[in-house]
Amino acid sequence: MNPSAPKRASVVSTLPSSDVGTVVLHWVAAIAVVTSLVTGIRISADALDAVVSKWMEPILPQGEIWSVDIWAGLALFGTSTTYLIYMATSGLSARISARRLSPLRMRAPAKLRWLSVNVLLHWLLYALVVALTITGVLLYLGFGGWAVTVHLAAAFGTLAYTLAHMIAHFGYGGWRQWLRIFRPAPLAPSVGQRSRYPLLIASLVAVPTAVAIAALDYESGDELLVQTTADLPAIDGIADDVAWRSARPVRIRTSQVRPLG
User: Fold this and answer.
1) What is the spatial distance between Cα 14 and Cα 12, in angstroms, rounded to a whole number?
2) Rounded CA gap, 69 and 73, in Å?
3) How far apart are CA 157 and CA 126, in angstroms?
4) Within the chain, what is the greatest distance between any pair of CA atoms?
5) Are 105 and 205 in contact (CB under 8 A)?
6) 60, exposed or middle or buried, with CB in 10 Å at 0-12, 13-18, 19+?
């Protein structure tokens, strides 16, 4: 008999876990956040005055990443909406209640204060997601100016949030708190639970909306057709060749354009 076996079993049994819905939504949101950040920062690296993103450009994805960034943003918004509905239907809304912020205003044990910090960060993330969504839609429609500035600030704010989120959870429960997101468990019944399948209900509301928007974006994309010609033009700065005269003009709306000379 191995005398250490009962001890190991006891340690495993005392490790905290989290409900399946939270685990699933957490990792979907995490993937969406990372994808949105790396593609968004890569896009911002093309700005003439980019500094941080330009420095990070060599390690960021290349190619056609606009669509990936849009889909990742939709996934993040859809997951956030799904989580709110999940909280309301699963009876877990008290987990993110504003009442849990009260220990920050009084002398309270460190664990309670870290719990309050986690709740505060949770709502901060929603504020960042809303800011990213609104400014992202404006950028999609062709606006620039302050929308670019706010969108970039919210993106780097999300990057900082990720680090703060990990620190706050470690402060609340140490490495065991980190491990709970890797240990899914069935949702425990509660008085406030409104559905036996809260994750399914939440997904049926939010996911089709995000998918429909992504499909609309895919189907409504503009196409730029490049025509071939047998009459090669002379590159002499004079547009009097047959190829230039027969070419159809293409107009593209841009914003924040600076002279390239």
Assistant:
1) 5
2) 6
3) 12
4) 93
5) no
6) middle
Rounded to whole angstroms, the Cα distance separating 218 from 181 reads 34
Question: Can you give the C-alpha Rg of the chain in angstroms?
Answer: 25
CA distances from 29 to 70, 84, 172, 183, 201 (A): 14, 13, 21, 17, 18
Alpha carbon distance 160, 150 (integer Å)? 15
What pLDDT does 182 receive?
92
Q: Label residues 187-205 b or e (16+ Cβ within 10 Å = b).
A: beeeeeeeeeebbebbbeb
Say how many C-beta atoms besides its own lie within 10 A of residue 71's C-beta: 20
Residue 253: its pLDDT value, please? 66
Domains of the chain and CATH, by start: 16-219 (1.20.950)
Give percent above pLDDT 70 in the chain. 90
